[in-house]
Design a protein that fits this description.
The chain has twelve helices and 18 strands. The strands form three sheets. Strands 10, 11, 12, 13, 14, 15, 16, 17 and 18 form a nine-stranded antiparallel beta sheet that branches. It has a five-stranded parallel beta sheet with strand order 3-2-1-4-5, with helices on both faces. Strands 6-9-7-8 form a four-stranded antiparallel beta sheet, sandwiched between helices. 31% of the residues lie in helices and 27% in strands. A hairpin with a 5-residue loop joins strand 10 and strand 11. The chain is α+β, with helices and mostly antiparallel strands and 373 residues long. The structure holds adenosine monophosphate (AMP). Adenosine monophosphate binds next to strand 15.
Length: 373
């Protein structure tokens, strides 16, 4: 059976993939220009740039399948790999997700609700779009935006010129502001045989454009919302003929779920699956890309994941909290940089999730906040 996985990108996602592969006898090779790439503790490491065609060929030759830690893989790199081995997810899925306009068009074409929007490639088009959609609205560059970068909120007509300058006058979309109650994500895996495994909805809290906290399963989800999330992610996986793990980010509104964007990869809002799900998103991604059956996704206990951003609390203090699981990425702390996460699982599986987790969170959240710089 195929057991060799190549990964473009050797950061924390590549690291958690490689670590998940170890006990299964799956060997990973990563390509990453950083000599101290975090994944190198568990993977072979080709130290090379992501546009180094020779090095990508070397990665392909050592791998039964090549997958990706991030979506902004340049098309020539994808082609260089695809000439020599299998890639999963398909290049077309990465390409769609690289462009917010094609991504939204796909959502619409498969009946997945998304924010009203218009393509904008000049300031006069921006003025027309603002008149059509109304303000406030959010102007986002079509490509290369992440973690809240490459976007700005436009409050009124007088702000249009400034907004256009902020996004760098790049091809963009103007999106209506969605009035959401909270942000959710749904993570799912699909294998080449068409088997699909879906994790429960996760509730996500962002600050300054960065994910801070995820709660899984998301509390207070109606059967209808749960069914819609499963339906949306299934449609997306099937429309893309997708293989691997995908994350769909959703706004929870009074009119139902509205899709924001998808990530064609394992996702920060699924890190909790390592400690609380029978099969982690990382293991299911490896299983999917290698053509193995998928593993169960329903968590045994509710949990909360806290990102460690800019700094980490003392490991001993974290480990003193029952149910806390610390994950460090071996990264140097810098303001705004994700250097690890903690997942806290309920010790007692019965009863209300929030009650079960509250004592642990009352200790952990201040520790995490103090450590963040
Ligand atoms: P994104 O880069 O598209 O993930 O956007 C980053 C964050 O901005 C999201 O997590 C939301 O909190 C917020 N956001 C993005 N698009 C919208 C929208 N159309 N309406 C309201 N908030 C949004």
């Amino acid at each position: 059976v195929a057991t060799r996985v190549g990964i473009v990108g050797g950061g924390q996602l590549g690291r958690m993939l490689a670590l998940a592969g170890k006990p299964l006898g799956i060997t990973c090779t990563v390509i990453d220009p950083a000599p101290d790439a975090g994944a190198a503790i568990a993977a072979k490491h080709i130290v090379a740039a992501f546009d180094d065609i020779d090095a990508l060929g070397q990665l392909a030759d050592q791998s039964d399948v090549v997958t990706f830690e991030f979506e902004n893989v340049p098309a020539p790199a994808l082609e260089a790999i695809a000439r020599r081995t299998k890639i999963a997810p398909p290049a077309s899925a990465l390409e769609v997700s690289q462009d917010r306009l094609t991504e939204k068009q796909l959502f619409e074409s498969i009946g997945v609700a998304t924010a009203p929007h218009a393509a904008v490639s000049s300031q006069s088009e921006l003025e027309d779009a603002a008149a059509a959609l109304g303000l406030p609205a959010i102007l986002k560059t079509r490509t290369l935006g992440y973690d809240g970068k490459g976007q700005t909120r436009v409050e009124s007509e007088s702000g249009l010129h400034h907004a256009w300058e902020i996004v760098g006058e790049a091809p963009s979309i103007l999106e209506a502001v969605v009035d959401f109650r909270r942000e959710l994500s749904v993570i799912a895996a699909r294998s080449a045989s068409g088997e699909i495994a879906i994790y429960p909805l996760t509730e996500n809290v962002h600050r300054a454009g960065i994910l801070r906290r995820s709660t899984a399963p998301a509390p207070d989800v109606s059967d209808a919302v749960r069914a819609t999330a499963r339906d949306y992610v299934t449609r997306l996986l099937e429309a893309l003929d997708y293989v691997g793990v995908l994350a769909l980010e959703l706004f929870d509104t009074t009119e139902g779920l509205v899709a924001n964007e998808f990530a064609p990869r394992v996702h920060n809002s699924g890190h909790w699956t390592i400690d609380a799900a029978p099969t982690s998103q990382f293991e299911n991604h490896l299983r999917a890309v290698l053509g193995m059956p998928l593993g169960a996704t329903e968590p045994a206990t509710p949990c909360v994941m806290l990102n460690l951003i800019g700094g980490a609390p003392d490991a001993g203090a974290v480990n003193a909290v029952p149910g806390a699981h610390l994950h460090m990425y071996d990264k140097q702390p810098r303001p705004g940089r994700k250097i690890g996460h903690i997942t806290v699982t309920a010790i007692d599986g019965d009863g209300d999730a929030e009650d079960a987790l509250a004592p642990a969170l009352a200790v952990l959240e201040p520790l995490v906040a103090d450590a963040a710089r």
